[in-house]
Amino acid sequence: MDTARPQGGAAALAEPGAGPDATTPALPAGTAGTAGGLQQRPAPSPGLRTDAELSDATRDDSSLRRFLRGLPGIDPVGLEQRAAGLATRSIKKNSKLQAIDLAISMVDLTTLEGADTPGKVRSLAAKARRPDPAQPGVPSVAAVCVYPDLVAVAAEQLAGSGVGVASVATAFPSGRAALAVKLADVRSAVDAGATEIDMVIDRGAFLAGRFGEVFDQIVAVRQACAGRRLKVILETGELGTYDNVRRAAWLALLAGGDFVKTSTGKVSPAATLPVTQVLLQAVADWHARTGEYRAVKPAGGIRTTKDAVRHLVAVNEVAGPAWLDPYLFRFGASSLLNDLLLQRRTQREGHYSGPDYVTVD
Question: Low complexity bias: where (predicted)?
Fold first, then answer.
């Protein structure tokens, strides 16, 4: 597991407890456009801790169930009020361009449609490498995310670019298949060149209380990843309560997931700010207890620059500035990049360019 603090995370975005009119200080230079270094691991954190309770939690099914059901409950009203408060924050005008570039560098540019073709993936990969060919200063995105049968196409197009190749797997989006089928799915993607695997948990098993079964499947998938980073999709829109979201996040962390990810994008609601806050708090608590850094990826429904900035504010407030880095936070999105590019042009040129400015995927 990753134990290292990424270098150059953005500075604090807003003072805790600031009012609705609060604005953020400038983001420091060098915080965005780091996609080319995503595979690098910084120096280990000093004093890595072993948490006895966490070790005991995975000893057997009853210990795991006791740990997950013993997690503190979440006050939904308080959580949603905090999310609403964070959503009112803004970034100072002279910092918006840096915030936009940071968000671009965090995008997992995604196409997960039945009608996807090699040609569409090639076009998407070209856009991932150079989101705006007319503006060479625009950073590359973090990764391109596709189905396993199109991984080889993406890998060929992205070779040497520093942009990751992410593949959904494990019977996406339902997660309902035999373990052997799920593992074959993962191995196929890895063999084709995937650098990251986005798996889905079996929500039916989780909701039925079969936590050990879900844990064992994540462990098996992690082994099949052969060192690739593993994102565990919880499909939070099907979990029913914030308490279940917290339990699922901790289950994924205990099983070795590098990321906890909200959604497949195929279920509504997908990524919401309150749910993202729950995941951010989970990885922050995990770091406090173990010294290890784990990542968060909200996916689905994040379409505008305003949405992205609200999430960046939440990242800073809940997890901390170290997570303002594409190694530890991503956006799973298809249309978000276009709006970020439009708003970037607006910030640079002082006028709105219109939707014809960007390419249509």
Answer: 1-32
Q: How far apart are CA 302 and CA 20, in angstroms?
A: 22
- Exactly one of 96, 127, 182, 297 is catalytic; name it: 297
Residue 99 is assigned to a structural domain of this protein: yes
Q: Which one of 185, 261, 307, 325 is the catalytic residue?
A: 261
Asked if 93 is an active-site residue, the reply is no
Active site residue 285: no
CATH of the domain at 266: 3.20.20.70
Structure tokens at 296: 């968060």
Query: Is 297 among the catalytic positions?
Result: yes
Output the pTM of the full model. 0.86
Q: Does 74 fall in a domain?
A: yes
Catalytic site residue from 101, 132, 198, 339: 198
- Report CA-CA distances (Å) from 89 to 21, 106, 307, 310, 312: 7, 20, 11, 7, 10
Q: Examine residue 321 and say whether the peptide bond preceding it is cis (omega within 30 degrees of 0).
A: no
Give the residue numbers spanning the domain of 181. 51-352
